Amino acid sequence: MSDAAYGFKERQAVWVEDGDGKQHSGIFVGEAKSVSWFGGASCARVVEPETHHEEVVQIFRITPRDE
Questions:
Q1: How far apart are CA 12 and CA 16, in angstroms?
Q2: CATH number at residue 32
Q3: What is the pTM of this model?
Q4: Are the CB atoms for 42 and 1 separated by under 8 Å?
Q5: Which domain holds residue 35?
């Protein structure tokens, strides 16, 4: 699946929801390869703007952020 199918563009500002339902800012980097043998939820790579820490999150946990 391509990044366009997710509706996000590279370097787009997004909100990332954590396991507690809290949101933090991020930058969409691109699609993340599935680590599951049987598929599973689609994932994306995002970077935290302040720390430059990259994380892989399920795509449904990110939403566009207006700047």
A1: 12
A2: 2.30.30.140
A3: 0.79
A4: yes
A5: 3-64
Chain position carrying tokens 């599951």: 36
Residue where the block lists tokens 């980097």 = 29
Helical residues (DSSP H) of the chain, grouped into ranges: 3-6
Q: Where are the beta strands (DSSP E) in 1-67?
A: 13-17, 23-32, 43-47, 54-58, 62-64
pLDDT value at position 25? 95
Average of per-residue pLDDT across 20-37: 86
pLDDT at 40: 72
pLDDT at 2 over 60: no
Q: From CA 29, how far away is CA 39, in angstroms rounded?
A: 21
Cβ atoms of residues 52 and 29 within 8 Å: no
Structural domains of the chain, count: 1
